[in-house]
Amino acid sequence: MDKACLLAHIIERLEHDSEVLRRAAQTAYETATAEENIAENKYDTLGLEASYLATGQARRTAEIRQALVSYQQLLLRDYDPVRGIQVSNRVTLEDEQGTRQCLFLGPEGAGLKIGEGDAQVTVITPRSPLGLQLLGKRLDDEVTLMLAGTAQVQCVVEVD
């Protein structure tokens, strides 16, 4: 999948997630404000819990909208060996056992997974430990992450 197609899939996923969360927040708000959910005693907390849920979902919806705007305005740039890896580059890393993973360094939306199987691309941001290490790296450079007290070394094998 080329980067333009990947970007389109990310935008589509964020739009879908935003709509799902918007509907969930609306449902929680309606539950919180429903007359039959007014607390009758201190142990009757359904309305209060629903309002907390609606608030959290509204915040998450705002975060997704912000990510959506970031991706809608994102200019896809080709890899520049002089500058190294930057936001909007797709990077393939290979570990010492030969296992590869494909990443897209995006402005927001960390953790999104686009595609399936060997074609799966995971979105990371420069704020993540791996994203921060990748900034400015070039082909054949290595990155090291500590996972569960073990150093994992991965090599940059492809960038576009």
TrEMBL record:
It comes from the Bacteria. Gene3D superfamilies: Transcription elongation factor, GreA/GreB, C-terminal domain. Coiled coil: none annotated. Transmembrane segments: none annotated. InterPro entries: GreA/GreB_C_sf, Tscrpt_elong_fac_GreA/B_fam. GO terms for molecular function: DNA binding; RNA polymerase binding; translation elongation factor activity. Keywords: Elongation factor, Protein biosynthesis. Signal peptide: none annotated. GO terms for biological process: regulation of DNA-templated transcription elongation. This is Transcription elongation factor GreAB. It comes from Pseudomonas parafulva.
